[in-house]
Design goal:
The complex is a heterodimer of chains A (about 110) and B (about 120). Chain A is built from no helices and 13 strands. With about 110 residues, chain A is an all-beta fold. The chains are: A mainly beta (about 110), B mainly beta (about 120). Chains A and B meet through strand 7 and strand 12 of A and strand 10 of B.
């Protein structure tokens, strides 16, 4: 199985400041024939199901604010929120879809400082 | 916009079989892959498996011997069966649409395993 490891486990950021979450996979998620990274980011607010934010490591899902961005390639990836808003309080999960079984990181809890 | 809704018993006894159904509206299950994912209380997400239109399935090896996922295209539903449950199977169970990624999720159903 591909192991996904996120850091930090929790993060406290002031409103309007930048938040950065890291995700590392135990093997490369870059598929050579497509030149795409099979990595997604999901946001889960309290009491809600997860919501897809980013796929192909950096493609923003329709309707997701442009303050959310994804970057990275191979085994190291980053989710950045450029200017934290109150509604961004959530747990964020990275997830690989390179190979079955599809696996998630342990989650990063983002709070307001 | 496709919508997914889980249904089934919220309380299952140990050693029994957990059975859930996901009803899809706003789109046909004849396309895409359709997955089940679970989340124990206060913990992270675990992919259980998927079914595709032609009946193709893939399961997480951690649950493989106990899981069956099937699709009913006439009802636009897909189902999860998990046998021989224990307290460790207590979780929120989500159904989700997956092309490559899980881009649409149901609201989830909490299943508790207890006598």
């Amino acid at each position: 199985d591909v192991v996904m490891t996120q850091s930090p486990d929790s993060l406290s950021v002031s409103l309007g400041e930048r938040a950065t979450i890291h995700c590392k996979s135990s093997q490369s998620l870059l598929y050579s024939s497509t030149n795409k990274n099979y990595l997604a980011w999901h946001q889960q607010k309290p009491g809600q199901p997860p919501k897809l934010l980013i796929y192909w490591a950096s493609a923003r899902e329709s309707g997701v604010p442009d303050r959310f961005s994804g970057s990275g390639s191979g085994t190291d990836f980053t989710l950045t929120i450029s200017s934290l808003q109150a509604e961004d309080v959530a747990v964020y999960y990275c997830q690989q879809y390179y190979s079955s079984p599809f696996t998630f990181g342990q989650g990063t809890k983002l709070e307001i400082k | 916009q496709v919508r997914l809704q889980e249904s089934g018993r919220g309380l299952v006894k140990p050693s029994e079989t957990l059975s859930l159904t996901c009803t899809v509206s706003g789109g046909s299950i004849s396309t895409y892959y359709w997955s089940w994912i679970r989340q124990p209380p206060g913990k992270g997400l675990e992919w259980i498996g998927y079914v595709y239109n032609n009946g193709k399935t893939d399961y997480n090896p951690s649950l493989n011997s106990r899981v069956t996922i099937s699709a009913d295209t006439a009802k636009n539903q897909f189902s999860l069966s998990l046998s021989s449950v224990t307290a460790a199977d207590t979780a929120m169970y989500y159904c989700a649409r997956s092309g490559f990624v899980f881009d649409n999720w149901g609201q989830g159903i909490l299943v508790t395993v207890s006598s």
